[in-house]
Amino acid sequence: MEFCDCLPMWSALSGAQQGRLLGGLVRRQVKKGAVIHSGSTGCTGLLAVEHGQLRAYILSAEGREITLYRLFSRDVCLFSAACVMRGIQFDVTVSAEKDTGLWVVPAEACRQVMEQSAPLANHINEIMAARFSEVVWLIEQVLWKRMDKRVASFLLEEAAIEGQALLCITHETIANHLGTHREVVTRMLRYLQGEGLVRLARGTVELADEAGLRALQQT
Question: Fewer CB atoms inside 10 A, N or C side of the chain?
Fold first, then answer.
């Protein structure tokens, strides 16, 4: 896989524009748990995922986390290049959920090519619109959806990502994704276990009844 595979409008760029992006391109390998971008570090640049998995999240003043979205192969992260997109005024942290290979495009190179290329500017705007839609969806979940449904949804999503029903994940990690307290997640998981929907063990959650979890998710 090449960097150009992350930009479907790559062929619409001129040779000089392609060269400008490639000239400053940095390829990085990061380990699981590494923080790639923090709101306090300024403008990291545009991130494009070659392989692995990243997580974008925000922190409350009390240090509580909540996941905004995740990034997989061929995905592009814009919030790490907030200085390119005027009007973004909240701090986002991006960390690796798995060992990840990625490319970093310097913010200045990205800005210059966006100013010259309507196809790239349109593509970046489409990505930004999709990300904000995900954030609005998240707000709706937090405000209106019961916690048992949110936990069920998260477990189903995680099982789909990992391709298996046995998840090696802690209650604390789930709480960080959902923006709540570990004790709340523990209480919800015990409830789901009592309903026969999951099986709990130290450091793992197993989906015992995926159909039942989907039914709960949709009620």
Answer: C
